[in-house]
Design goal:
Layout: E1 2-3, H1 15-24, H2 35-52, E2 59-63, H3 66-77, E3 82-86, H4 89-101, E4 106-109, E5 128-132, E6 134-135, E7 140-141, H5 144-153, E8 158-162, E9 179-183, E10 195-199, H6 201-210, H7 219-226, H8 237-249, H9 253-273, E11 278-279, E12 291-295, H10 298-310, E13 313-314, E14 316-317, E15 326-330, H11 337-349
Parallel strand pairs: 1-13, 3-4, 3-5, 5-8, 8-9
Antiparallel strand pairs: 2-10, 6-7, 9-10, 11-12, 12-15, 14-15
Helix pairs in contact: 1-8, 2-8, 3-4
The chain binds pyridoxal-5'-phosphate.
Pyridoxal-5'-phosphate binds at residues 7, 65-67, 90, 132, 136, 162, 164-165, 183, 195.
């Protein structure tokens, strides 16, 4: 079965081999206070900088999930107010969880067929602006130029970006925001249970001014530990090892991102050529490159998904309000051209 699910997604072919290697090397019971772990953590952060262009000045933290990042940001970085711009289910969940921890969060819904309108945004110095760069639920995305325009208009507020289904798939300019996060079971092509939280120096200064120290995952404690390449709790050491192996193998993100964009363009052209299907996102400027969301008639989609499964292709269900009217196809780096071509052949030949 080839998984085209947009998370958890197809993993690197080498994951079984890397895992066996980890067992042999004693990684599975490695002490997280040992020198060996500290070297592994340090090397992994170094590779992230090399392969994904994470700036030297930004601090990388190992956490367990993107959902945990929502919580950490609410606890440690939001003092007065968070402002959430979203058009889909993940952005909305982020808003809801934050609002429970820090009541008074502001929700700004925008149309999924339109770019986020920077002119509509009014932010105070102390706000945290929360943006879902790639909305996995519907396949819309916020363009780099939009993030750039927001940063240019607002220097003072913190900008937090959920890049869970785009980091390691497309090139991101980390300098245009303060907090970035992603879990590894999407574009990284790794098993779930590990996520990265990447913080600008300004974000950490803000956290220091707020001084929140009530949780094991308060960012100030995490930073204290990360100074010696450690974590506040026993982390997913195997997950970090697999990430390290994957990063060593990975191309630099400029190359991967260009391939992802090309493949996405080809996917959209292909979908548009099929009579029964069309891209959910009509506006090319806000289409995700990593999650291809396709709409069609509900019974047709059901038959298509079932037939695909029999042929060995796992397609993603629609999500939330688009559950029955769309399906989603991951366009993640570890999926091979051969796999994509055979799925396209199947889709082209399918008769309901
Ligand atoms: C998958 C996803 C999440 C949740 O990730 P977890 O690792 O399960 O917490 C959050 N945001 C977006 C955009 C996602 O795609």
């Amino acid at each position: 079965m080839v998984s085209f699910y947009p998370g958890p997604s197809r993993v690197h072919d080498e994951v079984p081999r890397w895992t066996a290697e980890a067992a042999k090397k004693g990684i599975l019971s490695m002490n997280h206070r040992s020198m060996e772990f500290m070297h592994l953590a340090e090397d992994t952060v170094l590779r992230l900088r090399q392969k994904l262009n994470v700036p030297r000045t930004y601090t990388v933290f190992f956490v367990s999930s993107a959902t945990e990042c929502w919580e950490i940001i609410a606890q440690s970085f939001v003092q007065r107010r968070s402002v959430h711009c979203y058009n889909g289910a993940f952005g909305e969940k982020w808003y809801q969880y934050t609002n429970k921890l820090r009541p008074g969060a502001q929700a700004l819904r925008f149309n999924l067929q339109q770019p986020l309108d920077v002119e509509d945004l009014v932010l105070d110095r102390e706000d945290v602006l929360c943006i879902t760069q790639n909305e996995t639920s519907n396949g819309s995305s916020v363009a780099p130029s939009t993030l750039h325009a927001i940063r240019t208009k607002y220097r003072a507020p913190l900008i937090a970006v959920d890049a869970t289904s785009s980091m390691a798939g497309i090139e991101l300019n980390f300098t245009k925001a303060d907090l970035w996060f992603a879990s590894v079971q999407k574009c990284f092509g790794l098993p779930a249970g590990l996520a990265l939280l990447i913080c600008s120096p300004r974000a950490l200064e803000r956290a220091e001014a707020i001084g929140e120290r009530d949780h094991y995952n308060s960012v100030l404690f995490m930073r204290e530990m990360m100074r010696s390449w450690q974590t506040t709790h026993t982390p997913n050491v195997l997950g970090i090892y697999l990430l390290n192996r994957a990063l060593h193998k990975m191309r630099v993100i400029a190359e991967t991102g260009a391939i992802t964009k090309e493949r996405a363009k080809a996917w959209f052209n292909f979908v548009e050529s099929l009579p029964a299907l069309q891209p959910l996102i009509a506006n090319k400027n806000v289409r995700s490159s990593t999650v291809i969301t396709v709409s069609g008639e509900t019974t047709y989609l059901e038959k298509l998904k079932a037939a695909a499964k029999r042929k060995g292709f796992l397609l993603g269900n629609g999500y939330g309000e688009y559950k029955t009217t769309t399906l989603r196809i991951a366009n993640f780096p570890v999926i091979t051209d051969r796999e994509i071509n055979s799925l396209k052949r199947f889709l082209k030949g399918f008769k309901a």
